[in-house]
Amino acid sequence: MTSVERNRRFSAGIWMFGQFVDRFATDGYGPEVPMPDAIRRAASVNGLEAVDLNFPFWGPGASVASVRSALDETGLRAQAITPAIYSREYSKGSFTNPDPGTRQRALDLIAEATEVGLELGVDYMKIWPGQDGFDYPFQADPKRLWDLSVEGMREVAGPHPGLPFAIEYKPKEPRTHMLFSSAARTLLAIEDIGLENVGVLIDFGHSMYGAESPASSVELCLSRGKLIDVDLNDNFRSWDDDMTVGSVHIVETLEFLFSLNRAGWAKPWKLDQFPFREDPAAAARASIVMLSRLLDIADSIEPKQLAELQENQDALGAQGFVFDVLFSQFSRDRRQG
C-alpha cells in the first residue's frame, strides 16, 4: 500500500486550544477561551477534521447549540465526548467515590454527556476516571474500588450497545495510584464489565509514563479486539508532559505507528497535547508534520525483512535496519525541502 493510500487523517482534543492552568500559574497561561472559540482555533490547523470535546462545555456562553454552530461553521466534527468526571467535585473519585450521591452525580453526568454525544454524532465516548484510585496504603479496599468501577462502566455503557465507550488509562495523576493504570489492568476490567461496546483508548504518553512499550500495548489491545482509539503526544517518561509528537521518543513513536499501520488503522490520528508556552495551532501543526513524516517512514519499512530480524530477536540488526530507513527518509526530506 502506498503512502497516498495510507491514513493521513488527523484530529485533536479541544483542550489543546483552550486555556492552560497548572498549580503555579493558577490564573492560567493566556486568557479563558470559550469552547466555540477553541473550535475555531482548531479549524485554523490544516488537516484537522475532528475534535474530542470535554463536557460540560467550558467558557461563557458555551452550550450545545453554540458548539454545534461552531462545528458547522468550521466543518469540523465531534469525534468524541469526554465527561469531566475528574474535576474538584470528584476529588475522592467518580465511580469509586465513598459518597453514593457523588457517585450518582458522576453517572448522571456521563449519561447527559452521552446524550449530547449522540446528538452531535460522535464516534465514541471517552471515559477517563482520573480521580478513581487511592493515594496511601490502606486508604481504601482495592476490591471495593474495582467492583464500583466495573459496576459504573456497566451502568453508563450498557444502555447504549451501539456506541463504543473507550476507557483511557493512566498510571497516576491526579491520584498516586489510578485504578485503570495500564493496558493489562484495563483489559481485565473490561473482561469483568462484560460489554462488547467497552474498549481501550491508549494515550501514547500515558503508556510511556507507565513504563510500558506503547507498541506492545497496541498489539495486546488489538489482539483482543478492544482498541477503540489512540491519543498522540510525547514526554520524558517521568511525567505526563503532553509534548508534541516525536519531540523526545521518535523510535518508539515510529514503532507505535508501525503496529497500527500494520493493523490497517483507519481512524484519525488524535493529538492530545498541552502547549502551555507555545502557540496551540503551531504545536498542532508541528505534530502533524512529524506524524506525516513518521507515517511515511512506517510505510517504507519492509515488513518481511524486519520480520526476519525479529524472528531471530536480532536487536542490533533490527535497530540498524530501522535507523537506516529513518535517516534515509529524513535525508530525503531535507534534500526535497
Keywords:
two-stranded antiparallel ribbon, 337 residues, alpha/beta, eight-stranded parallel beta barrel, TIM Barrel, globular
Question: How do the helices and strands line up, and which of them pair or pack?
Answer:
Elements: E1 10-13, H1 35-43, E2 48-55, H2 64-74, E3 77-83, H3 100-120, E4 124-127, E5 133-134, H4 142-157, E6 165-168, E7 177-178, H5 183-193, E8 198-203, H6 204-209, H7 214-223, E9 227-232, H8 250-262, E10 269-271, H9 280-300, H10 303-311, H11 315-336
Parallel strand pairs: 1-2, 1-10, 2-3, 3-4, 4-6, 6-8, 8-9, 9-10
Antiparallel strand pairs: 5-7
Helix pairs in contact: 1-2, 4-5, 7-8, 8-9, 9-11
A few lines on this structure:
With 337 residues, the protein is an alpha/beta fold. The protein is built from eleven helices and ten strands.
Overall outline: globular
What number of domains? Answer: 1
Largest sheet: 8 strands, parallel, barrel
Corresponding CATH architecture:
Alpha-Beta Barrel
Which range best describes the helical content: under 10%, 10-25%, 25-40%, 40-55%, 55-70% or over 70%?
40-55%
CATH hierarchy, class = Alpha Beta
The CATH topology is: TIM Barrel
Low-pLDDT runs of 5+ residues are none
Measured by DSSP, the beta-strand proportion falls in 5-15%
Radius of gyration: 20 Å
Can you give the mean pLDDT?
95
Euclidean distance between termini CA atoms: 25 Å
State the strand order across the main sheet: 1-2-3-4-6-8-9-10
Q: How many E-type strands?
A: 10
Indicate the structural class.
alpha/beta
CATH homologous superfamily name?
Answer: Divalent-metal-dependent TIM barrel enzymes
Reading the helices and strands in chain order gives: EHEHEHEEHEEHEHHEHEHHH
How many alpha or pi helices? 11
